[in-house]
């Protein structure tokens, strides 16, 4: 549900401020990156409409913010996230067919599924901790789980739970784990990695 409020504080140097909701005294943090229209500089007393989100520090903040009268644009920043979910689905389809054809051991498919389920629940736990203000799960742990084969679960969690889906530095490392996983599978099927694949198939 979209919220509406008045911009009561704005730090031009650091590009953030606070919106006071129209129907209550609560103040919501907003960063300039949250605005769909970044060409316009926010001014005090601007009326802002926005959606609620939870920041990396666990506090409520605004996202998809627009100035009164402007239309919301959801295209910015979401394309890469949706693509990662489609890629995860395609990955499972391809690896499932490869396992059925005997090109990869079925245990490898089950390993990816198990790692993805575990990673999804760890993301959910981290978001729950963020909402409660509890001690957070480190980003290195989330990336490690993705690197171990849980990246499809991480991709789904980022979009379904709306967690860790906006932070660019985090997303860059996440995509690095995706590339490493896919490259590793391709290497197993190459001439240099074929003996390792033969050993896995024989197990």
Q: Briefly, what is this?
A:
The chain is of the alpha+beta class.
Q: What can you tell me about this protein's structure?
A:
The chain is α+β, with helices and mostly antiparallel strands and about 200 residues long. It folds into two domains: about 5-65, Beta Barrel (OB fold (Dihydrolipoamide Acetyltransferase, E2P)); about 80-200, no CATH class. About 50% of the residues lie in helices and about 20% in strands. A five-stranded antiparallel beta sheet has the order 3-2-1-4-5. A hairpin with a 4-residue loop joins strand 1 and strand 2. Helix 1 (about 80-100) packs across helix 3 (about 140-160), helix 2 packs across helix 3 and helix 3 (about 140-160) crosses helix 4 (about 170-190). This is Cold shock and DUF1294 domain-containing protein. It comes from Paraglaciecola aquimarina. It holds the Pfam family CSD.
Task: Describe the structure using short key phrases.
about 200 residues, alpha+beta, 2 domains, 5-stranded antiparallel beta sheet, about 20% strand, transmembrane, CSD, membrane
What secondary-structure arrangement, pairings included, does this model have?
Elements lengths: L2 E9 L4 E6 L5 E5 L15 E8 L5 E8 L11 H22 L5 H27 L6 H22 L7 H21 L5 H9 L1
Antiparallel strand pairs: 1-2, 1-4, 2-3, 4-5
Strand order of the largest sheet: 3-2-1-4-5
Give the uncertain stretches in residue-range form. Answer: none
Q: Which percent band covers the strand fraction?
A: 15-25%
Oligomer state of the chains in this structure:
single chain
State the total count of DSSP E strands: 5
Largest sheet: 5 strands, antiparallel
Tell me, what's the shape? elongated
Distance between the termini: 52 Å
- Helix amount, in percent? 40-55%
Gyration radius (Cα, Å) is 21 Å
Mean pLDDT: 85
Order of SSEs: EEEEEHHHHH
Number of domains: 2
Enumerate how many helices there are, as a single number: 5
What would you call the structural class?
Answer: alpha+beta
């Amino acid at each position: 549900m979209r919220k509406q409020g008045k911009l009561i504080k704005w730090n031009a140097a650091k590009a953030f401020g606070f919106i006071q909701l129209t129907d209550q005294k609560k103040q919501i943090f907003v960063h300039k990156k949250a605005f769909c229209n970044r060409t316009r500089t926010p001014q005090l007393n601007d009326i802002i409409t926005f959606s609620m989100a939870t920041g990396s520090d666990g506090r409520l903040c605004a996202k998809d913010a627009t100035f009164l009268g402007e239309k919301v644009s959801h295209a910015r920043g979401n394309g890469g996230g949706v693509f990662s979910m489609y890629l995860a689905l395609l990955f499972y389809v391809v690896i499932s067919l490869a396992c059925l054809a005997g090109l990869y051991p079925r245990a490898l498919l089950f390993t990816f599924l198990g790692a993805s389920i575990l990673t999804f629940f760890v993301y959910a736990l981290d978001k729950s901790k963020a909402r409660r203000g509890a001690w957070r799960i480190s980003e290195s742990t989330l990336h490690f789980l993705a690197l171990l084969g849980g990246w499809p679960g991480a991709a789904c969690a980022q979009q379904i739970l709306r967690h860790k889906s906006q932070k660019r530095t985090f997303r860059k490392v996440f995509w690095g784990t995706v590339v490493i996983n896919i490259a590793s599978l391709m290497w197993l099927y190459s001439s240099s990695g074929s003996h390792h694949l033969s050993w896995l198939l024989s197990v």
